[in-house]
Amino acid sequence: MMSFCHNVINISCVKSSWSNDVRASLYSLMVLIILTTLIGNLIVIISISHFRQLHTPTNWLIHSMATADFLLGCLVMPYSMVRSVEHGWYFGEVFCKIHTSTDIMLSSASIFHLSFISIDRYYAVCDPLRYKAKISILVIFVMIFISWSVPALFAFGMIFLELNFKGAEEVYYKYIHCIGGCSVFFSKTSGVLAFMTSFYIPGSIMLCVYSRIYFIAQGQARSINDAVGLEEKNGMSQNKERKAAKTLGIVVGVFLICWCPFFVCMVMDPFLDYAIPPTLNDALVWCGYLNSTFNPMVYAFFYPWFRKALKMILCGKIFQKDSCRHKLFLESHP
């Protein structure tokens, strides 16, 4: 039997018809994702904030990204969880707009940070002698400012000015809109704009830059092997190339696997007359959220000194006197 989110049946959204066991399983899974996102990103934030050795331009960029991912897990995911499981929205229309805007802003901010981190890594690997001159604290500050301001202006401007409905108002209010719901709706124009701004442009930058890094790293490894001789070629070159391929494959692969399905469906949905089921859209949104869950693992815990920082945090050693001066790595190998 159908149940509704509002007492006026004709204009009310239909509530979830899942059994209590299914709903309990979904809540458990989503709570696990939220807690993992919060804990992982909080550890990154504490590590970079506490240990002075980690106060580098690159790490402040990672710190800012972890903050965006943490806020996504704290401010957005819990409400999205209720909406996804119950198929209803119980927090009012105004908060729906705030939640949707914050969701788009923080997700886009996380993706923007990934793009800027790729640019930072490009100069570190491909132009190491001039890296410190080109990637200064001021440059990092500009990157962080752009990563927060552009998504904020885009998200809150689009939702509160209702530009996402532009050109499809009749379709939305006739076929999509219902009381007790909080779905993200895009017209053809706004959908393409959101796709380009939040995914295609930063994603293309990241993909191109990391591809360039990989091929340059391969060339550097071959040059080193030519100098050290044929005997060491198989060992040194193959190890470096495998490591580069593995690192870049994880970085690009996690990003594409998490976000590509959602953005492709989002941009295609208006052209398919909104035929994609809401349940599938919800599932793809959570797939995108997983990128914020995995970011700490890919960009932080991948490095040995972050694992040392994690151990100190879990053991409570950061509360010891002068623990912020603890050396997590040799200065010659940052």
Automatic annotation (TrEMBL):
Gene Ontology MF: a single term: trace-amine receptor activity
Principal location listed in the UniProt entry: membrane
UniProt keywords, alphabetically: Cell membrane, Disulfide bond, Endoplasmic reticulum, G-protein coupled receptor, Glycoprotein, Membrane, Receptor, Transducer, Transmembrane, Transmembrane helix
Statement: the UniProt record of this protein carries the keyword Disulfide bond: yes
Subcellular location as annotated: Cell membrane; Endoplasmic reticulum membrane
Keyword ATP-binding set for record: no
Entries under Pfam families matching the protein: 7tm_1
Bilayer topology: Multi-pass membrane protein
Protein family (similarity comment): Belongs to the G-protein coupled receptor 1 family.
Name of the protein: Trace amine-associated receptor 1
